[in-house]
Design a protein that fits this description.
Blueprint: E1 11-16, H1 31-47, E2 52-56, H2 70-75, E3 80-82, H3 92-101, E4 105-111, H4 113-126, E5 130-139, H5 143-156, E6 159-161, H6 163-171, H7 177-191
Parallel strand pairs: 1-2, 1-4, 2-3, 4-5, 5-6
């Protein structure tokens, strides 16, 4: 394995603020494409047995967040971890789950790239973890501000990928059944 390659055995996926009332704010990727990419990432997490953390903010009245259905469609059942700050790394429960996983690569998806995605990426990089934004599964508020985020996270040591690249990278040898499942995600995304 090459240094730049992503190892699914070392990955945990953070889905941040993919919830009603926030996801509609995306301006850098159409909402239907965002949903398709989130579902593709969730499927890859299931196929390669990568744990996921779904992080969200409760409603003003304390009601639980309404998460977009594509995560469950791709991954299956999951727990929602509510937080009270923009940064998932300021939530002790979430940080504990990341530490407990013993995984050093965090694949991040969410809305808004400028807050719920950028802030945990910066902290993860500072802590020596490998932070990777799955860009087509992230939605920014504007192209200009999202570009600023990408420059800042790159300077901090985080990187980007997309679901299609990730599927191909994780697939490995196409003759293996798991590789066929991974590449199946690519074909499903391209045909829908």
């Amino acid at each position: 394995m090459f240094k730049h390659q992503i190892d699914p055995k070392d990955c945990i996926v953070l889905f941040a603020d993919l919830q009603a009332g926030i996801v509609e704010l995306t301006r850098t990727v159409p909402i239907d494409l965002l949903g398709k990419s989130v579902k593709g990432l969730a499927k890859l997490a299931r196929i390669f047995e990568m744990p996921i953390i779904v992080s969200a903010v409760a409603g003003e009245d304390g009601s639980p967040a309404k998460i977009i259905p594509q995560i469950e469609e791709g991954y299956g059942k999951y727990a929602i971890h509510h937080r009270t700050t923009a940064n998932s790394f300021l939530n002790e429960e979430i940080v504990g789950l990341i530490k407990k996983s013993n995984r050093r690569t965090i694949l991040i998806s969410g809305v808004a790239t400028e807050l719920a995605v950028q802030l945990p990426a910066l902290v993860a990089a500072e802590l020596g973890l490998r932070a990777v934004l799955v860009l087509d599964a992230c939605g920014g508020l504007s192209a200009r501000t999202e570009q600023a985020v990408l420059a800042r996270i790159a300077q901090a040591g985080a990187t980007t990928t997309c679901v299609l690249t990730l599927a191909g990278e994780l697939a490995g040898d196409f003759r293996e059944p798991i590789a066929q499942q991974s590449i199946g995600v690519v074909f499903e995304m391209a045909s829908s």
